Amino acid sequence: ILQKAAENQKLPAEVVPVRVLVRLEKLVFGGHKKILRERRMKDKLYGGFTDDTRTFRIDVPTGAPERWAAEFRRQGDQHEHRETDTVRFVFEPKSHAVV
């Protein structure tokens, strides 16, 4: 039984970094951010893969550092011989005018 379980085991998931540009105020004062992202999902009815749009809602904490990251484990693209990808949203400030 253990040998059969070892054969069915998939390769580990990959971490997919996604760069998100936000206003500097979002990192200083915090708030929420909604990100729409398309991902590949296994089609259980017909087989193969379909594209699905997923909404990620992220709460940015007050005083977040410049390259703050939010990670969603196994919420990315699905694969045939590998675990579902992990999506890491990296928040960076947009360029702004110096006052």
Question: Helices and strands in order, then pairings?
Answer:
Elements: H1 2-8, E1 15-22, H2 24-29, E2 31-42, E3 49-60, E4 68-72, E5 86-93
Parallel strand pairs: 1-5
Antiparallel strand pairs: 2-3, 4-5
Summary?
The chain is mainly beta and 99 residues long.
Q: What features would you describe in this structure?
A:
By secondary structure, this protein is mainly beta. It has a single domain, classed as Sandwich (HSP40/DNAj peptide-binding domain). 13% of the residues lie in helices and 45% in strands. It has 2 helices and 5 strands; from the N terminus they run H-E-H-E-E-E-E. A 3-stranded mixed beta sheet has the order 1-5-4. The chain is elongated, with a radius of gyration of 18 Å.
Helix content: 10-25%
Query: Which runs of at least 5 residues are low in confidence (pLDDT < 50)?
Result: none
Structural class, by secondary structure, is: mainly beta
CATH class identity: Mainly Beta
Radius of gyration: 18 Å
How would you name the CATH homologous superfamily? Urease metallochaperone UreE, N-terminal domain
Label this structure with key terms.
99 residues; HSP40/DNAj peptide-binding domain; mainly beta; 2 helices
